[in-house]
Write a structure and sequence with these properties.
9 helices; 8-stranded parallel beta sheet; alpha/beta; binds nickel (II) ion
Length: 257
């Protein structure tokens, strides 16, 4: 029997799934996906993530505000996230972080809410899920300043160097790789895929974005996580089953499932 995968990061609440969301979710298992973590990107999408998680046992939610939307973030939203996190299907805070590539929100605002949401994760003793685009230095600095020995979390769709990944791992974090590892010119993600300690590695799709080869350009779906897994298994010279099992085990350890 072939192993099934856990997709550690997908946005099934995204409007690109409005037409066929339930169909996509119901067919996950036959497509070798055992579970999906759906992080929120703002208050509404966090609510939608939780609604899906309550409807389907194999969907888990994280609640939080993405750096793109941090300009809309407020203390009220933070308090609502805190309330929502009492629900058992909310297993993390995210996705949170910094995005200096798009700069959709002012950097000061991004940093403020990244910090505040790390503090929320700490208060709730939940792992947090980090989005870091072109902001490696500030992400690491803030995580170090707010560091505590606790639940840890994930650097999602990790795009930094091998050296930097070691710093995050030292803080108790897991490194999750997605579609870019399958791209031909993705030299650094492929290096990272080979170097991350096996017990710190996770796989994801970031659906509907970052679709792996051979479907690059199309809408991404959790079922394509196997192409991410295949590429990493090849790089690490392990079987796809071993990679599936190990990344599942890692996911369950991190989220205490
Ligand atoms: Ni995401």
């Amino acid at each position: 029997m072939a192993s099934k995968f856990i997709d550690s990061h997908a946005h099934l609440d995204d409007q690109r799934f409005d037409k066929d969301r339930d169909e996509v979710i119901r067919s996950l298992y036959e497509n070798e996906v055992e579970a999906v973590l759906n992080p929120g990107s703002d208050l509404n999408s966090s609510k939608e993530a939780l609604a899906m998680a309550e409807k389907y046992p194999f969907i888990y939610a994280a609640v939080g505000c993405h750096p793109h939307d941090s300009r809309y973030m407020s203390d009220d939203h933070l308090n609502i996230f805190k309330e929502m996190a009492k629900n058992k299907k909310v297993i993390g805070i995210g996705e949170i972080g910094l995005d200096y590539y798009y700069d959709n929100s002012d950097r000061d605002i991004q940093r403020k809410w990244f910090r505040e949401q790390i503090r929320l994760a700490k208060e709730l003793d939940l792992p947090y899920i980090v989005h870091d685009r072109d902001a490696h230095e500030d992400v690491l600095r803030i995580m170090k300043e707010e560091h505590y020995d606790g639940a840890g979390g994930i650097l999602h769709c990790y795009s930094g160097s091998v050296e930097l990944s070691r710093e995050f791992i030292r803080l108790g974090f897991y490194i999750s790789l997605g579609g870019p590892v399958t791209f031909k010119n993705a030299r650094v993600p492929k290096l990272v895929a080979g170097e991350v300690p096996f017990d710190k590695l996770l796989i994801e799709t970031d659906s509907p974005y970052l679709t792996p080869e051979p479907y690059r350009g199309k809408r991404n779906e959790p079922k394509y996580v196997k192409y991410v897994a295949e590429e990493i298994a090849k790089i690490r010279n392990v079987s796809i089953d071993e990679l599936a099992e190990k990344t599942k085990e890692n996911f369950k350890r991190l989220f205490r499932l």
